[in-house]
Design brief:
With 500 residues, the chain is mostly helical. The chain has 16 helices and 4 strands. It is globular.
Length: 500
């Protein structure tokens, strides 16, 4: 093997107390991420429904622009991770970046509760800015708790992913009760309380991390010679205030224009990562190329997976029979099914990856399986919309429920493994930047998901016909690349030079 390996030495990692077989700080990061995800998903489920109700007077024609705004919002949430990752790598360190991000995100969540469209959009821009400082860096610190050869890494990331999904599971249920039962009704939900509750959750995350970060020791502190004073935090904070109106503008230009800009940014990022890998040697270059190939398939996965807050929302509201006996299943609660499935299956799959040992599927094969399972979820929707539609134009409740479950299995094959992959394959000096690249690829997929969802709804709102047409396309667009990836996995694995 030639060239420097992208590894952490045991000496560079402090001796941590072990809890349940993993470093103690993992559990602190788990809870900080739990509260941040509670805030994010508490806000997320209501966005498209709120946009249609508040800014389009409830008219179904508002579904398409609401989906496009939602996709652009998610895309920029992940794209902003590039800036946050770079700032953490080069200026503030991971710990200070996370605290700054938490403060900014909380402010944005409270802003979106104001029922004025410009303030709402400015609030979304503020959330995006804060999330960019928070999200990539807390994931990067999980990777820094283990050496690159530690077989517990994938298991640790999967446990961390459970923290994400525990917060995501509880948020729609609790905020849905606030909106529909305590402060509003099913006919007139109090979305304002959803956003306020999400903001409070973000404050919990900030406080938890502030007091728990001592457990991390030197991990995540500013680079030596950088960020020793509060002045740098102030400067970055001022830069964040400048970033907010820029992101507001990007939200306003439209999803199609945004897609061009994000694609150009992705090309620049890929070029920088490959050049950095080349400087570090042949092995680092090959690993960087393998990582970027997987990024491309990641875009495709999230383009169709991330329908939960857009087209699946409108499907649940208008085309799914949610009446179960004398009770109607809330639309918001469908958002919790994915997280419930993750919580149920994550321990099983974490155990399975470790138990398989040398037979553990390679990272490319896991990604291929993720695409195939995502495609199978769309196959079920195709079946329901073509053969199970009632005279009232509704499909059975269980079909959409199971779509979320099947997608969740695919997600577990791909997403937590992807976070671990970046910490193993990215060039040593740009791990945070590489994590930003992972989130940018996810963001591009999310923007495409909004564009796709807007086509599914059309100009007059979703129908069974438009849904069937759109989801049939989704099935083939996932299945074929998934099979291709499974076939070329050995070639990608060679570029990874022994990384498992």
């Amino acid at each position: 093997m030639s060239g420097p390996a992208n590894t952490q030495t045991t000496a560079s990692i402090p001796e941590f107390k072990q809890i349940l077989g993993h470093p103690k700080p993992l559990w602190m990061l788990f809870m900080a991420e739990f509260w941040e995800r509670f805030a994010f998903y508490g806000n997320r489920w209501a966005l498209t429904l709120y946009i249609v109700a508040q800014f389009h007077n409830g008219d179904p024609s508002g579904q398409a622009p609401a989906s496009a705004t939602y996709g652009a919002y998610l895309a920029l949430v992940y794209a902003a991770a590039i800036i946050g990752g770079y700032v953490a790598d080069k200026i503030l360190g991971y710990q200070r970046s996370i605290l700054l991000g938490a403060i900014v995100m909380a402010a944005g969540l409270f802003m979106v509760s104001v029922p004025v469209e410009k303030v709402f959009m400015l609030g979304l821009a503020t959330i995006i800015t804060g999330n960019g400082f928070f999200k990539p860096n807390i994931s990067t610190m999980v990777g820094k708790l283990y050496t690159a050869t530690d077989q517990r890494r994938d298991s640790g990331f999967t446990i961390f992913y459970m923290g994400i999904n525990l917060g995501a599971f509880l948020a729609p249920i609790l905020t849905g009760i606030l909106a529909n039962n305590i402060f509003g009704t099913d006919a007139m939900p109090a979305y304002k309380m959803v956003f306020i509750a999400a903001g409070i959750g973000m404050l919990f995350s900030m406080v938890w991390f502030y007091f728990g970060r001592r457990q991390l020791g030197s991990i995540g502190r500013p680079p030596e010679g950088e960020g020793k004073g509060r002045r740098k935090v102030l400067y970055v904070g001022l830069a964040a205030l400048v970033e907010i109106p820029v992101i507001y503008f990007l939200l306003s230009v439209g999803a199609n224009t945004l897609q061009i800009l994000l694609s150009a940014l992705f090309i620049v990022l890929c070029t920088m990562i490959v050049l950095e890998g080349k400087r570090e040697g042949g092995v680092a270059r090959d690993r960087a190329i393998a990582m970027l190939i997987i990024f491309a398939f990641n875009i495709l996965f999230w383009m169709f997976f991330e329908q939960a807050g857009s087209s699946f929302n409108f499907l649940a509201e208008n085309i799914v029979n949610r009446v179960l006996g004398s009770w109607t299943f809330p639309v918001a609660w469908f958002q919790s099914v994915n997280s419930l499935a993750i919580i149920a299956f994550a321990p099983i799959m974490a155990w399975m990856w470790v138990k398989l040992g040398k037979m553990n599927p390679s990272i490319p094969r896991k990604f291929g399986l993720g695409l195939v399972f995502n495609g199978l979820a769309f196959a079920l929707l195709m079946l329901a919309l073509s053969t199970m539609v009632t005279a009232a134009g509704l499909i059975p409740f269980w079909t959409l429920f199971m779509v979320y479950v099947i997608q969740s299995v695919g997600e577990l094959c791909l997403s937590p493994i992807g976070l671990s992959m970046v910490t193993k394959l990215a060039p040593m000096r740009l791990v945070g930047f590489g994590m930003g690249g992972w989130f940018l690829s996810t963001g591009i997929g999310n923007n495409l998901s909004g564009i796709f969802a807007s086509h599914v709804s059309g100009e007059t709102g979703m129908t069974t016909g438009s849904a069937l047409s759109g989801y049939t396309f989704g099935f083939w667009a996932l299945l074929i690349p998934g099979v291709v990836l499974l076939l070329i996995a050995p070639l990608i694995q060679k570029l990874m030079h022994g990384v498992k």
